[in-house]
Amino acid sequence: MGVELKMPALSPTMEEGTLAKWLVKEGDSVKSGDILAEIETDKATMEFEAVDEGVIGKILVPEGTDGVKVGTAIAMLNGEGEVSSPSPLAGEGQAGTASQGEGATAASTPPPPAQPSAESPSPTRGEGQVPTPSDQQTQASPVELPKQQQQPETGTQQLVSAAAQTRTDPEVSPDTATQKLAVREALRDAMAEEMRRDERVFVIGEEVAQYQGAYKVTQGLLDEFGPRRVVDTPITEYGFAGLGSGAAMGGLRPIVEFMTFNFAMQAIDHIINSAAKTNYMSGGQMRCPIVFRGPNGAASRVAAQHSQNFGPWYASVPGLVVIAPYDAADAKGLLKAAIRSEDAVVFLENELLYGQQFDVPQVDDWMLPIGKARVMREGKDVSIVSYSIGVGLALEAAETLAGEGIAAEVIDLRTLRPLDRQAVLTSLAKTNRMVVVEEGWPTCSISSEIMAICMEEGFDDLDAPVMRVTDADVPLPYAANLEKLALIKAEDVVKAAKAVCYR
Amino acid sequence: MARSAKAQTAPEAVPLTPNRERPQQPQRYGASKEQLLDLYKQMLLIRRFEERAGQLYGLGLIGGFCHLYIGQEAVAVGLQSAMTVGKDSVITGYRDHGHMLAYGIDPKLIMAELTGRAAGISKGKGGSMHMFSVEHGFYGGHGIVGAQVSLGTGLAFKHQYSGDGGVCLSYFGDGAANQGQVYESFNMAELWKLPVIYAIENNHYAMGTSVERSASEPDFYKRGESFQIPGIQVDGMDVLAVRGAAETALEWTRSGKGPIILELKTYRYRGHSMSDPAKYRTREEVQDYRENRDPISRAEKELLGMGVAEEQLKGIDKEIKEIVVNAAKFAEDAPEPDAAELHTEVLVERY
């Protein structure tokens, strides 16, 4: 009997891709390891390998097809005289439900009958790994998946789906045309525009040039600006962060990309001691206008060393500007402002948001003010303050709360330092209740800071204690269920908002 | 200190694998009488300035850490006299007073920074270890050991990027030479052929730890071999030997051949900082350097040999003393920064 070959997920956050090329045709015999097809996403092109032996039956999706959802059957593989134990699921779950877990394996095979887990996204850091047989064990499990579930049911999936549901609210006149842009495109456009405008701006980091960016944020920059201004480095974070800082002191405008901010820990000395303190230590004589940027916070299933929100760390340092945008319009407008700033800026992106699309106003030179929060949704009953990916959950929670008669106001801080205290206090004065939502640890966090501000400066406006919804105070675990438990969820925000409203 | 004793004259830097182009062994600089007089003056200014700083420290007028350059003067003067102020950049660690004076920065502004006054070059906010003069192309003054190596590599990147023809001179010590970022910088500098001179001031002690106890390869000029960066060992107690090496290094870097390492064998007479009693070395060792190898005495002898009158040298000494006394007086009399300065210059812009 035939087995469906399904559209694989090449990365933890991939939802669809292009079937660029078939390297086999119907009737070909294939064995494990043979390359069957080339799959493209906006980030990468990957080869799709066979896991099992067999003969290619029908090709269901022709090459050149765009927007093939992860998990879609793309071809049939007929077994060659192989009669293995029939899968309890072979005919049932695979055709209809397209979980990313299934997609993550290259070719479907009958699962072991007793596999209990349904949560099986097998993501890895970086761009699509060759699926391994161990992925299959959880791949077609007998547990029912929710019907529309396109994402792994993990903690990060919550964050992603919340982000996908929300709209932007750009501060422009209603007749301004907008353009749908993924966050990664918005960031790229911001860099490209500033590089066109100012010869001193250059990008440096690992895989930013020839590879087109580990997360494809710098895609196309090498072609336009050449290797002098788009510089691939060795794996040497401390070194290139220092080199960038020195170049900035000398008068250039470096954009230093960290593949993730987890690796910036190797370079944090230069960010703090060299970049942030120079202007002050020199009595204003020597500046360090540099942008350190890259993804920050939890990605998906990459566990503790690759999942951490450094917002509170950097936001505690005088001399730094720290920006953590949520949507594409803010990402673009604030990155442009960061590149033009005379100060050292830490620009915290989020991998899970890179592929999310938002409306970006089509105006020349879209710049946004650093240090200004944004009211994402107005409401009178409770303020929900957040930043970065937490804003998606806050908006989702606000929607739920609206259905229960609670009008929540959602504030996106956007800049973590200098913090827009006034926006926080103004909203508090309006609603008298506040919940802070942060995809990060609770201790010594941005949430702690917001709570302190409310205590010190907004005490008389408080009708209830400020509450916070944060990740669990643990290193982020790998197991899907534990990861889900560790990360913030919209329902927790709803619960907290109701609690401060005494409902 | 067996090693330093036998390193009386800089040995030939024998290439480990002579399979690529290397700079010529530098020649001792053939200075004219006027040129040597000028180098002598500069060294003397550093010596007297540092002695005065030590006194002011003792009086409580200078606080915190204060690292004196006494004994190492020939290095800064020999190297920087070959460079162009404003075009070539210089960056160093915390022992920075001498490097600043050798680049023509006003001693008053430096001394007033040491005493923490508003008139100091960093408005009193930086102190001994954090001083800068962008105007001169002096980029600090950095307190984190080794940081200036990556930063200096970045300055060289800037020279190359903007095609301004400049070279960066990045100083660090035998201690900093063991920091990881030094080698990260070496790798990038050679990969991209950046115009940077890595000047390793080997004064034999990283605070209290001798080179013998901390360096598996104590010949620091060889430290670039894995990166194909050539290295030259130089007698750092002879200002003309240093100047000669600077000429060779500048020629190498300016011609686009990439970085070069100079190891300058030198010695500091004082402790690591003012609070260091220097118990880790013998009185005799220090005495030997002071009496037999002092760079200023050496230049003085040479000048006398060239026919300079003793009277003239005495006159120079007086002139220098006056500059230093005035700088100290300025630094003592200048007011402290205004309290309002506490919150200024944290950021450049207002948001």
Automatic annotation (TrEMBL), chain B:
It catalyses: N(6)-[(R)-lipoyl]-L-lysyl-[protein] + pyruvate + H(+) = N(6)-[(R)-S(8)-acetyldihydrolipoyl]-L-lysyl-[protein] + CO2. GO terms for molecular function: pyruvate dehydrogenase (acetyl-transferring) activity. Residues 1-31 are annotated as: Disordered. InterPro entries: DH_E1, PDH_E1_Alpha_Subunit, Pyrv_DH_E1_asu_subgrp-y, THDP-binding. Its cofactor is thiamine diphosphate. Keywords: Oxidoreductase, Pyruvate, Thiamine pyrophosphate. GO terms for biological process: pyruvate decarboxylation to acetyl-CoA. It is an enzyme of class 1 (oxidoreductase). Residues 42-339 form the Dehydrogenase E1 component domain. Its EC number is 1.2.4.1. It holds the Pfam family E1_dh. SUPFAM superfamilies: Thiamin diphosphate-binding fold (THDP-binding) (SSF52518). Heterodimer of an alpha and a beta chain. PANTHER family: PYRUVATE DEHYDROGENASE E1 COMPONENT SUBUNIT ALPHA, PYRUVATE DEHYDROGENASE E1 COMPONENT, ALPHA SUBUNIT BACTERIAL AND ORGANELLAR. NCBIfam families: PDH_E1_alph_y. The pyruvate dehydrogenase complex catalyzes the overall conversion of pyruvate to acetyl-CoA and CO(2). It contains multiple copies of three enzymatic components: pyruvate dehydrogenase (E1), dihydrolipoamide acetyltransferase (E2) and lipoamide dehydrogenase (E3). This is Pyruvate dehydrogenase E1 component subunit alpha.
